Amino acid sequence: MVQFLQQLINGLSIGSVYALMAVGYSLVYSIMNFSNFAHGGVIMLGAYFGFFGLTLLKLPFAVAFLLASFGTLLVAIIVERIAYKPLRERKAPFLYFIISAMGASILLENLVIATIGPTFRTYPEVFSKAPIELGPLAIGRLDLIIFVISAVSLTLLILFIDKTKLGKAIQAASYNVKACALMGVNTDRVILTVFGLGGFLAGIAGVFFGMKYTVYPQIGNITTKSFIAAVFGGLGSLPGAVLGSIILGIIETFVAGYLSSQFRDLIAFVILIAVLVVRPTGIMGKVTEDKA
Predict the structure, then answer these.
(1) How far is CA 134 from CA 6, 35, 139, 291, in A?
(2) Most buried residue, 8, 105, 118, 180, by CB count within 10 Å?
């Protein structure tokens, strides 16, 4: 029982990081009807921003954390303005958006390799590695902080979308962006906000990923699992993205703990194939027009 609870706690920590990443995919998909594969590159930059904020600039963790979050917010907006807005204005086919997204992701990765190098970098120890003892359970301080900050960030995002005027515009645009434009909604502002929100969360996710594992230019490839979590929960559904991420994180942890860590990555792709075969719209997704 103790091992079960221990694995559950670890799964919640990993799942919460996936959730921060997956929400960015779902936000963009809900409005623009395509999967933003440049999102992984933004997450990777967030990990580097936080790392250099702590090591090069010697900033306190809170300041480096905010630097990474707002830095990736700015990067996400720049990516949207350069890679996607011209295509939107020309009413380009969805395939062009996918190609542009992949190009942006490759560009970000290679810019980092060219300027910083491909070396793996390890975050300095910010929090004590001594676990918090709760009876027979040992909860890592970093895992607890990751879970709490992720939960607070996602809750604030949901409140923003549910309670604010701009958030309601995002909800309306997710149903029909063209109809919103005809009704006078500034859809360009809505799209910019969606990318900004996704970018901000990408920075948080990047820092946490770097602290839990390591930092390297190919982090964007690892974030494929967060995309799988978004598909599992239902692309375009924020609650679905969170739920899919938590479930994936828990399943991965249990597979690694009870079977073998060699199957940890494999299980994510098994889930993806199973979802696409059994329920292509995901757990909480709705049947919509064909999207890329």
Answers:
(1) 11, 41, 8, 47
(2) 105
Count: domains in the chain: 1
| Whole-number Å distance between alpha carbons of 229 and 241 | 6
Cα(288)–Cα(15) distance, integer angstroms:
27
What are the b/e assignments for 200-214, b being 16+ CB within 10 Å? bbbbbbbbbbbbeee
pLDDT, tens digit only, all 292 positions of the chain:
778 888 898 899 999 999 999 999 999 998 888 889 899 999 999 999 999 999 999 999 999 999 999 999 999 999 999 999 999 999 898 889 999 999 999 999 999 999 999 999 999 999 888 888 887 888 889 999 999 999 999 999 999 999 999 999 999 998 888 888 888 889 999 999 999 999 999 999 999 999 999 999 998 777 888 999 999 898 888 999 999 999 999 999 999 888 877 888 788 888 888 888 888 888 887 655 544 4
Q: What is the CATH number of the domain that holds 23?
A: 1.10.3470.10
What letter would DSSP give residue 120? -
Residue 84 token pair:
């996607």
The CA distance from 185 to 199, in Å, is: 22
| Closest CA relative to residue 191, chosen from 21, 29, 23 | 29
The encoded tokens of residue 178 equal 């063209």
Amino acid letter, residue 210: G
Residue 94 covered by a domain: yes
Dihedral sign, CA of 268, 225, 249, 211?
Answer: positive
- The answer to whether residues 125 and 140 touch, using CB atoms and an 8 Å cutoff, is no
Q: Is position 285 within any domain?
A: no
